[in-house]
Amino acid sequence: MLGNKQNVFDDLHAAAAHLVSSGWTVRERLGAYGASNGGLLMGAAMTQRPDLYGAIVCQVPLLDMLRYQRLLIARFWIAEYGSSEVEEQYRWLRRYSPYHNVQDGRRYPPVLFTTAEGDSRVDPMHARKMTALLQARPESEVVLLRVDRDAGHGVGKPLEKQVDDLADQWSFLAWQLGGTVGP
Questions:
Q1: Which among 20, 30, 42, 111 could disulfide-bond with 34, CB atoms 3.0 to 4.6 Å apart, if both were Cys?
Q2: Active site residue 21
Q3: Active site residue 148
Q4: What is the pLDDT of residue 73?
Q5: What CATH code is carried by the domain that includes residue 111?
């Protein structure tokens, strides 16, 4: 939490690096998936260690950590993340905010962002804004955005919609990581 949030990202990077260095996989076949707060984790994975991941699925994510608290119910999360309106907390947030750490000329792994029009927790702006930023860069590989028009953050989503979402996400990972989909 707060000023220690980077530890979460470092732990993921260490686990991913261990999988590669131990020979369990290679970077080109290492996919990562996270939703909501895990979507923030995926955004940080992509911007902090783009060399480590072959593809990323970033679902209903927080990505603009300097403005998050101004959107929807996110002001209630200040106790966990901090607020960009407090100088010290601004520095923590700025250091890891995925949107603010996209660098010109840097190649990022293929990514599928997902969001939902009816998300009352994490504003769809996060995924849309990050998608637009990455798609505008000529060095970007595959940057896709899937918007569910008839759903929210995910809680209570009908089984049929869950299956559709997962089919798209697993198909994307298989496509980008060299796997196969189907029998």
A1: 42
A2: no
A3: no
A4: 80
A5: 3.40.50.1820
